[in-house]
Design brief:
The protein is an alpha/beta fold. It is built from 13 helices and 30 strands. Helix 9 packs across helix 13 (574-585). The longest helix has 26 residues, at 5-30. Belongs to the 5'-nucleotidase family.
């Protein structure tokens, strides 16, 4: 049987003996320094393994400026066991962090797990996220998966983000400049056109350098149609994450690409909220739950690492693959507050990543701290786009007397959720506006907090249009629909059952609607039906109620099919309603106070 190439090399070394090796060593010493690069004569072989640095982040959501309030902080575990909140994030600091991390690493890749754009603050969202794509180009992002928010404006707009061109309605924003599109590939392996059956963007890409080849497969969560407005996913199919990744892992393997990383816009929930707590304390992957766990367990051993997202959580976990080999599953929170640094040891002989119990990839999350120098090119970019946005962004919209937390609240009933629901009820209760009797708001649509401390020159307690936009960036149109009392009860039960059983989504409710949430029970029983009242009167299952909500919820989004009603009236946008409420109910002399909770009574 003929010897394999590497066996022949070993035989040659054995035959040479000590004298032969000494002769080769002398020849090499006499060669010019660059001779080994020319491919001629005898020369030392490159090291069998090379360390490849994988830097990753996820869920940026167009946060070019440092996020305000609790949205711009991470929890860090201290040596004495206590925790502290550390301000983090901002593209100026993320760029500095990544550029510093790359130093000394000739093999370095920067990848992302989706939601780079969408649900963005005004500085990016006002310009259809062109500023964020420009920033990511400057950042030298190598590849990203699509996330659900990449579909907020539909597949055609996503294609423009990739390929460039000015916006079809708003045109070009800067004189003499055409939007160039992303320098990096957006991967959408599991998103196919209903007409063609083919992926709408590349399913995978292969990073290459000096013979090192690493494949990247990108997918978004299969449930994307449940968390995006119907218009955004029209004409698209979203396939299973595991089946898709395994399919393309086989295809890459057939092409000789043995090292593969999956970029998955789906995630999990860690036991701890401190970014630097171990996920593996009680065994590999013991510190995480949620959809990504089963996905990780089902993905082919051909895939060597999983970069995840969507849940905005921080974790670095070891979840064994189906063959029992250790495999990293990572997520870097959101808004550019963290980045993950993973070392992949690439074996030049097998072209694969070394993954054994002794030599598995090493990975850690790092804070994007704000006490480091700012990246000058990002400062210039933010200032340039900020100048264009300033006339709108800095306009005073309302006044508050203290922080009103949305994202920053862990309570089922959030102060900012109460405020938004009240604004929607007020804006749509008049007979000619829809006659709404109550309003419901999805918690995921609250993208930030209202922060008392001034973000610029507007003064403390002033809510600017830009800050209001950051809270409600989708510009969803408000709907008022007829729902029976039975549908309303079912909808409240769907918060904690069905699609939301594993990850409850507690709707924010307008004043007058009250009920008890019993967390000692499970499933739909957590909602105590006989406590559901409107203005003190029990909800009548046979009666019809007029209910205000954004078009996303009215379409059954977020796992609430019971909210699809009849006799629909379309009103103003959620942002316009919110802004109008702030203007009508606050002033410099009488600022708005945080709402007092009490609509949802929680039993634990």
């Amino acid at each position: 049987m003929p010897a394999k190439p590497h066996m022949k090399r070993a035989a040659t070394r054995l035959w040479a003996g000590a004298a032969g090796l000494a002769t080769v060593g002398a020849l090499v010493a006499a060669m010019p320094a660059d001779a080994h690069d020319r491919g001629h004569g005898h020369h030392p072989k490159p090291d069998r393994t090379v360390d490849v640095q994988l830097l990753s982040f996820n869920d940026l959501h167009g946060n070019l400026e440092p996020p305000a309030g609790s949205a711009g902080a991470v929890t860090e575990r201290q040596a004495d066991g206590t925790t502290k909140s550390v301000p983090a994030g901002g593209m100026e600091y993320l760029a500095t962090s990544l550029r510093t991390a790359r130093q000394g690493h000739p093999y370095s890749i920067t990848a992302a797990g989706g939601d780079m754009i969408g649900a963005s603050p005004l500085l990016s969202g006002m310009f259809h996220d062109e500023p964020t794509i420009e920033a990511l180009n400057k950042l030298k992002l190598d590849v990203t998966a699509v996330g659900n928010h990449e579909f907020d404006e539909g597949a055609t707009e996503l294609a423009r983000m990739q390929n460039g061109g000015c916006h079809p309605t708003d045109g070009c924003y800067e004189k003499g400049k055409t939007f160039p599109g992303a320098d990096f590939p957006y991967l959408a392996a599991n998103v196919t056109s209903e007409k063609t059956g083919k992926p709408i963007l590349k399913p995978y890409t292969v990073w290459k350098k000096n013979g090192v080849k690493i494949g990247f497969i990108g997918v978004t969560l299969k449930g994307t149609p449940n968390v995006v407005t119907a218009s955004g996913v029209k004409g698209l199919n979203f396939a299973d994450e595991i089946e898709t990744i395994n399919k393309y892992a086989k295809e890459l393997d057939r092409q000789g690409v043995k090292s593969i990383v999956a970029l998955i816009h789906e995630g999990g929930m860690p036991v701890s909220n401190a970014y630097n707590d171990s996920c593996d304390t009680n065994g590999p992957g013991s510190g995480i739950s949620g959809p990504i766990v089963d996905i990780a367990k089902g993905i082919s051993p051909k895939v060597d690492a999983l970069v995840t997202g969507h849940t905005h959580q921080a974790y670095v976990c070891t979840v064994p693959d189906p063959a029992g080999n250790p495999r990293m599953v990572t997520s870097a929170a959101s808004f550019g507050k963290l980045y993950t640094d993973t070392t992949l040891t690439y074996d030049r002989r097998t072209n694969d990543i070394v993954r054994t119990a002794v030599r598995s990839p090493k990975s850690a999350n790092h804070i994007v701290r704000r006490d480091q120098p700012k990246a000058a090119d990002m400062t210039e970019l933010i200032a340039r786009w900020g100048k264009l946005a300033a006339p709108v962004a800095n306009r005073p919209q309302g006044f508050i007397s203290a922080d009103i937390n949305g994202r920053g609240s862990d309570a089922p009933e959030k102060p900012l959720g109460d405020l938004i629901a009240d604004a929607q009820l007020a804006g749509l209760s008049a007979p000619d506006k829809g006659g709404a009797q109550l309003a419901l708001m999805n918690p995921g649509g609250i993208r930030s907090d209202l922060v008392y401390k001034a973000s610029g020159a507007e003064g403390d307690g002033v809510v600017t249009y830009g800050e209001a936009f950051t809270v409600q960036p989708f510009t969803n149109m408000m709907n008022v629909v007829d729902l029976t009392g039975a549908q309303l009860i079912t909808a409240l039960q769907q918060q904690v059952s069905g699609a939301n059983a594993a990850d409850p989504k507690i709707l924010q409710i307008s004043k007058g609607l009250t009920y008890t949430l019993d967390l000692t029970k499970s499933g739909a029983a957590r909602v105590v039906v006989d406590t559901i009242k409107l203005n003190g009167v029990a909800i009548d299952p046979t009666k019809t109620y007029r209910v205000a909500m954004n078009e996303f919820l009215a379409g059954g989004g977020d796992g609430f099919p019971a909210l699809v009603g009849t006799n629909k009236l379309v009103g103003a946008s959620d942002l316009d309603v919110f802004d109008a409420y702030l203007a009508a109910n606050s002033s410099a002399s009488t600022p708005m106070a945080p709402p007092v909770p009490g609509r949802i009574t929680v039993r634990k």
